[in-house]
Design goal:
It contains 6 helices and 5 strands; from the N terminus they run αβαβαβαββαα. It is of the alpha+beta class.
Length: 173
């Protein structure tokens, strides 16, 4: 069923706004996924601050043409049935969400991505991004590394004091 011109204009306007604020847009082939599986993907994405859009590639191209950074972007990879995962707050989240979902659902296949500068991100780089820890995990690792010397020093001092006390008690006895 064809959609009206007004509906297309609305979709393009929504896509233009979404892509303009996006830090990373990852697209994937989804042919073979059931409606329930797509709903599960959308739920997982929402929990991670990612929006999933299923729209015609032609409308995505039109929306990209209206955004200055995407005007010269190569869109030849936008072929077949694609869904778009978009995040305006985290560059890694769309790749992570789709990669995690693809582990359980073989019908989903990541096809590529665009970054916020309008550059095409190769598939290998998207997969590498998906393998990275999340922003919060990285922050936790840095904090743990910064606290490590203090924790080690305190443990060493506590162990040293107890060893001295034990030695004195053994000597006195």
């Amino acid at each position: 069923m064809a959609i009206s011109k007004d509906k297309k204009k609305t979709l393009v306007a929504d896509l233009t706004e979404l892509l303009s604020s996006s830090k990373m847009t990852v697209f994937a082939k989804y042919q073979g996924l059931t409606v329930a599986e797509l709903q599960e993907l959308r739920k997982n994405a929402r929990e991670n601050g990612v929006k999933i859009k299923v729209v015609k590639n032609r409308l995505v191209r039109v929306a990209m043409g209206e955004i200055a950074v995407y005007k010269d972007t190569d869109t030849t990879g936008l072929e077949g049935q694609l869904l778009y995962a978009v995040s305006d707050s985290d560059e890694v989240a769309p790749a992570k969400v789709l990669a995690e979902f693809a582990k359980k659902h073989e019908a989903l296949e990541i096809a590529g991505a665009f970054n916020d500068a309008g550059a095409v991100v190769p598939l290998e780089d998207v997969k590498a991004l998906a393998a990275l820890p999340s922003k919060n995990e990285l922050i936790a690792q840095v904090v743990a590394q910064l606290l490590s010397p203090a924790t080690d020093s305190i443990s060493g001092l506590a162990g040293g004091v107890s060893a001295i006390v034990s030695g004195l008690e053994a000597h006195a006895a």
